[in-house]
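3.2 Worked example (two chains)
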Amino acid sequence: MNTIRYPQPDHIEPCVDMLGRPLTDLRISVIDQCNFRCTYCMPAELYPSDYPFLPSSERLSFAQIDTMARAFVRLGVDKIRITGGEPLLRKNLEQLIETLAKLTTPDGRAVSIALTTNGSLLAAKARSLKDAGLDRVTVSLDSLDNGIFQRMNGVDFPVEKVLHGIEVAQAVGLNPVKINMVVQKGVNDSQIVPLARHFRHTGVILRLIEFMDVGGIGAWSRTHVVTSEAARALIAAEFPLVSLGEGKPVLHETASRYRYLDGGGEVGFISSVSQPFCGDCSRVRVSSDGKLFTCLFAQDGLDLLPQLDTGQGLETLLRQHWQRRGDRYSEVRGALAQLGGRKQYPTVRMSLVGG
C-alpha cells in the first residue's frame, strides 16, 4: 500500500476559527439512508419507507471525497470519521477507506480513520474494513434488553446481532471499539448499569451521551435528559470510578473519561447539554451531498460541490470559511432553555450530515 506524502512546507499556518479553535477533525457522511429508525434520530413517523433519500447520483463520489479530504488534511485535519445514515450501506465503502488510509499530514503523521455504525452489518464487514485500513469503529447501542433495543431502533432488529458485530470488530483488531449509548429518561436509562457491567473487562469503551436536540427531533425537551452526572452516579454506586483528566474532556475531545477502580476498563460521558464543550470543538462535518457544516446544530451548510471535481480554490475556501466560524450553540442553549427548555429552531437532518 503506497502512502501519499505531501511536501513539507517550512511553516504550516494554523487554521483557527474566530474563537481560536483549530481544525483537526473531519466527519464525512457517505450516505443519508439508514436501515434503522431510531426514535431519537430518524423516527419512523418522520422517515417512512418511502422517504425521499438522496439518489446515488447526488451523493459525493469517492473521488470527490478524496479531493476534499486531502484539502482538509493540508489545513490540519488528522482525524477522519466516516458516518451516515448507516455508512455500511454505501457500496464498496472499503475502496474509500483504502484511499483515505493512505493520507498523511504535512509533517508525516498518519491520519486516523474511524467509522460510526449501528452495527447491523458490522460482523460481515469488519474484516474487509480492517484490511482496507480502518483504524477504529464506534457502535451505537442503546440497550442490552432486546425489547427496549427493538423499540428504540424502530425496525425490530435484535440486539444479539449488534453484539456479535462488536465481537467480530474486536477480533479483527478494530480497537478500541467504542459504544455510544444515547440515554433518554424513562426510555432506556434502566440500561445504564447493565451496559456498564456487560462491557467491563472486555476492552470495549462505553460512552454515555446526553439526549440532544439534534436532527429531526422537534419534540426534544430537557425533561428527557439524563445528565452525565446522574448516569455516572448510577455506575459508580456499583463500580467505583476514578477520573481521568479531572473529569473533563481532553482538549478537542468530547468525552469526560473515567476508569474503573478495580481495573475493569474505561467509561466516558458526553455532556453536551449539561456541560457544553463548544470552547474547544475542532470538528467539521460534510454531508453526503457535499455541504460543509461547522456545527452539529447548524441550519445551513456551505456547498462544496463546485470545487470538488477539480479541487481548484478548495483549500482557500475551506480556510476562509473556518476562520469565520463562531458557532457555540450548546453553550448558549442554557439561555435559550429559559424560553421553555425545548428545541428552539430546526437543524440539519442528522442522517444527512452525520453525528
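3.2.1 Second chain
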Amino acid sequence: MADGLRGRRTVADGLRTVVRALVHAVLSGTALLAVATVASVLGPTLALDLVTPPVAAWWTVFTAVVVQAVPFLLLGTAVSAAIGAFVPERVLRRLLPRSPALAVPVAGLAGAVLPGCECASVPVAGSLMRRGVAPAAALAFLLSAPAVNPVVLVATSLAFPGRPEMVLARLLASLGTAVAMGWLWARFGKEKWLTPPRRAGGPHPATGARAFLAGLQHDFLHAGGFLVLGAAAAATFNIAVPRALLDPFTGSPWLSVLLLALLAVVLCVCSEADAFVAASLSAFPATARLVFMVVGPMVDLKLFALQAGTFGRAFAVRFASVTWVVAVGAGVLTGWWLL
C-alpha cells in the first residue's frame, strides 16, 4: 500500500513538473515575442528620432527575423527536451534501420512530421544524436524537417496558386538534398569535424520531468543566443547592399540562380514564409525562385550560427558549404525537369 502511494505521488510530482515547465516555456516565449514586437514598433521610431534611417531599417529587419523564428525555436527546444527526457535510446534504434544507408532516407521522410523552421530542427537533431541516432540520419532530418513539412508545402501552394508543379519541385529538390547530404556525411564525414552535442548533467543525464525542464531551459537559451547573432548579420546585409545592385542579375538565368541562392543565405527568411518572398520576386525565372526556397531552409546565417553553436564551427563551415552546393544543384536539376 505504501509503495503504491509513493508511486502515485511520484507520478503526480512528475506531471506537476512537466506542467510547470510547459507553462514557463510558453510564458517566457510569449514575453520574448511581446518585447520583440514592441521593440519592432518603437525601435524604428526611436532610431529615426535619435540616430539615422538606416539604423531604423536595421532594427526593423532584426526584430522581424527574431519574432518570426522564436515560436519555432521554442517548439524545437521543447521537442528536443522531450526526446532527451522521455524517449529511451532503444526506441529510436528500433525505429531507424541500423544501416546508415537506409536510416538516412527514413530520417529524411520523418522530417515531414515536424511543422517548424530551421531554428527548430537544430536542437532536435542534437537531441537525436545524444540519444544514439547516427549523425548521418540526424543531419538528414535536420535538413528535411524545415523544408518538406506540411506547413511549408501548404504555404508554397498558397504563394504559387495554380502551380502544383512548384510544390512538387520544392518537395523533391529539398528531400533529395537532405538525403544526399546524409549519405555524403555517412561516406565522407569524420568524427573530429563534429563536436557531439552535450547536455548539462554529464555523460549520463537524468530522465523524466526534471530532465525535461533542465533540457528545455538549456537548449532554448543556448540556441536563442546564436539566433540573435544570425538575425543581426541578416539585418546588416539588408541595409548594406543597395537594391539597385541586384537588378542586372535578373536578365541572366545562371546569374539569377546564383544571386537568389546567395540571397537565401543572407536574408534568413523562415521556411514557412519564404515561398511568399520567392513569389514576390516575379522578375526572376521560376528555377531561380525554386533554388531560393530550397537553399533558404538549409543554409542561412542564423542556421549557420545555430549549427556552429551546437555542433562546432569546423562542422558548420564544411557542412553548410557542401549543403549549399548540393541544394543549388538539386534545385536547378528539378527546375529544369519540372518547371
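3.3 Remarks
DSSP finds 14 helices and no strands in the chain.
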